[in-house]
Amino acid sequence: MKIHYGTALAAVALVAVHILMRLTQGFAESLEYDSVIANYKFIPYAGMLEIILILLSIHGFNGLRVILLELKQGRTYEKAVSYGCVAAMIALIAYGSRTIIMVNTGMT
Amino acid sequence: MAQTSLAEENASTPLSSSQSITLRIARYNPEHDSAKKFMEFNVPYEKWTTVLEAILEVKKHFDHSVAVRYSCRQATCGSCGMIINGKPRLACFTKISELNSNVITVEPMNNFPIIRDLAVKFERLFDTHHKVKPYLIRDDTEITTNTKEFLQSPEELEQYIQFSNCIKCGLCNSACPTMATDSSFVGPQALAQAYRYVADSRDKGKDDRLKIIDDSHGIWRCHFAGSCSQVCPKGVDPAMGIQLLRGYMLGFRS
To answer: CA angle at residue A87 from A85 to A93, to 5 degrees?
Structure first.
């Protein structure tokens, strides 16, 4: 459970930086195609987004796992929920990372 | 002599009082019944009459088959926990006059399997209590020669003394919303007892206990609803104990 608290605190700090960065330009401008691509190409910022993605995925899916474990108990069910959440977490991180990688390798 | 006392108790006359209440008792036998049903009895009472006495009145004069567990009648043994007008309470520690109602409904405690009527099984509570090692753990002992008793300052005693008042009545577990959904949850009673020994300066088993409760159905499943502390008849605050235990687990306390 310490991982849940740790990821939450770290995500709050990094998401705050992320929001502050967005405030440096207008909200509508920051969502324009070129602006988003530029963000992904700026490696330190893209790295921070990747870390936020990992932290929120771990936090979110661990939270979902805990809720599901409270709803029902049983050895098979609990294993299925735990492995299912880890698989979903990996899939989401892979999908998010793919976007960053595609931009940086010129695949867009 | 013992026979005479028993005969006298059995032959006691009903309480004579101008006041009476309707006592609704939940009846349920898992071997025969599909659902709980209520039976109503008109019971006279005095201002000092407890709910347990009213139930025993019903057993003596109306229906002796009502199943209820009780022993000390003075909130010490923790046997007569039940839901009284929707709240977990000790029947022997709840006066009818303090409920301010003409209808008293008594039901078995939530989150416990029912044996019959108001009597519930305590196995899970005792198992989880036992699981947290509710005793002092250390290598040396006070009883070997050339040793002296383990001294504690009043401040050290203050750390855990309220938690040692637990009478294992199960009211906290009955009130706990997590216990209702998580059948493997260790429960506020056991967690409060874990804190009681972790906070005891004489104990050396802190790491063992913290490992036991740091489980997928352990201390982190508590949502801090605080209902356990609301219903404790002995003034124990399990919710606070759980929060303090979390302090140990996160390294804020040592």
So the answer is: 100
User: Tens digit of pLDDT for each residue in A45-103?
Assistant: 999 999 999 999 999 999 999 999 999 999 999 999 999 999 999 999 999 999 889 98
User: What is this model's ipTM?
Assistant: 0.73
Read off the pLDDT of residues B155-208 as tens digits, 9 standing for 90 and up: 999 999 999 999 999 999 999 999 999 999 999 999 999 999 999 999 999 999
When the candidates are 2.60.15.10, 3.40.50.300, 3.40.190.10, 1.10.1060.10, the CATH number that belongs to B123-249 is 1.10.1060.10
Contacts of A69 in chain B (CB under 8 A): 182, 216-217
CATH of domain B2-120: 3.10.20.30
The amino acid at B79: S
Q: What is the pTM of this model?
A: 0.84
Q: Is A66 on the interface with B (CB under 8 A)?
A: yes
Q: Which of B182, B242, B249 is the best mutation test for A, with the most CBs of A within 10 A?
A: B182
Cα–Cα nearest to B106, from B64, B52, B70, B171: B52
Strand order of the sheet with strand B103-107?
A: B37-44, B20-27, B103-107, B81-84, B87-90
